[in-house]
Amino acid sequence: MAFREANDGATGWEVLPGAWAPGSETRVAAAIVQHAGRLLLDLRSQEEEGLAPSGAELGELGRRCAGALIRNRLLTTFPGDAVSLGKPPRKRVARRTWEVVPLDDAKAYGRPGCPYWAVHVALREPGRGVTAAVVSVPALCGTVTSTGSRSLWHHPGSPPGTAPILLHDGARGREAAVALGRRAGARPRVVASAGARTLAVADGTADACLHTGTEAAEGTAIAAVATALGLHTLRPAELGAVPGASENDVLLCRAPLARVLRAASAASAGGPPGRAVRLVAPGSARGTALRAPSTARR
């Protein structure tokens, strides 16, 4: 089976008989993920009309339905591959394996009007690691892939004269996010979905996001997409002592804030005072000057 863009003026893809072309995995995965996103949005519409359960039951129903759709279409298109549904990523696999997170925040999905939930798919190949990845936030019409292609609404970022925004999960990452925010003069904000946090940085809604545990570990869909988008990846070891952070935590951020955080960490470690770094919103000639504080004793 293979996919091609529908030529009837509709948005989406249609399934065609025949073999898939080698190297088309990312494009095919993106089409499948977008189908799953439309299914999840349709389920939410049914809930609003009283035709589907609500709350936690809706989240579980959405996870099961999206997972089944993605799994079946992947196995139909790539019959020799394996599919791992909702399980932690593995560093080594015996054969090509699709790692699927059909809904990364069922609680947010079950909350009326909340758009912060995402779908992740990654292809792991023996000896090569992740070779294709897609992360999508259907309710915000956002999709990014490991090839660098993206379908996003672009935002101008933090307005001039305001502090940058640093997103975290509101649970395990809260203490570390607050500490990093103080260092860089950033405003911590809570978005529980790892995929939604990543796309917010990609489209300019936020300036950085903190992922805890294995959410953005090497070899996940989020890590592959972040690399393709050119986002800076920082770890606690690079930023000195960060309260509440673990060695598995990852901070994804845009270049200006990455420079501020590195300078602030150097200053807090007793290094030379950080020079001012100006954050400039796209399309603006002005920005916010942030100076990394110096904590060296005199």
Helices, strands, pairings?
Elements: E1 2-5, E2 13-16, H1 25-48, H2 55-77, E3 82-85, E4 97-101, H3 106-109, E5 119-125, E6 129-137, E7 142-145, E8 150-151, E9 165-168, H4 174-184, E10 187-190, H5 194-203, E11 208-211, H6 221-229, E12 232-234, E13 250-253, H7 255-268, E14 276-280, E15 287-291
Parallel strand pairs: 3-4, 9-10, 9-11
Antiparallel strand pairs: 1-2, 4-5, 5-6, 6-7, 7-8, 11-13, 12-13, 14-15
Helix pairs in contact: 1-2
Q: Which tags fit this structure?
A:
globular, 2 domains, 23% strand, five-stranded mixed β-sheet, 7 helices, 298 residues, alpha+beta, D-Maltodextrin-Binding Protein, domain 2, Fructose-1,6-Bisphosphatase, Chain A, domain 1, six-stranded mixed β-sheet, 32% helix, disordered N terminus
Explain what you see:
This protein is an alpha+beta fold and 298 residues long. It folds into two domains: 2-151, Fructose-1,6-Bisphosphatase, subunit A, domain 1 (Fructose-1,6-Bisphosphatase, Chain A, domain 1); 165-291, D-Maltodextrin-Binding Protein, domain 2 (3-Layer(aba) Sandwich). 32% of the residues lie in helices and 23% in strands. The chain has seven helices and 15 strands. Strand 6 (129-137) and strand 7 (142-145) form a beta hairpin. Helix 1 (25-48) packs antiparallel against helix 2. The longest helix has 24 residues, at 25-48. The protein is globular, with a radius of gyration of 20 Å. 46% of the residues are buried. The model is unreliable at 1-19 and 271-298 (pLDDT under 50).
In brief, what are we looking at here?
The protein is α+β, with helices and mostly antiparallel strands. It has helices at 25-48, 55-77, 106-109, 174-184, 194-203, 221-229, 255-268; strands spanning 2-5, 13-16, 82-85, 97-101, 119-125, 129-137, 142-145, 150-151, 165-168, 187-190, 208-211, 232-234, 250-253, 276-280, 287-291.
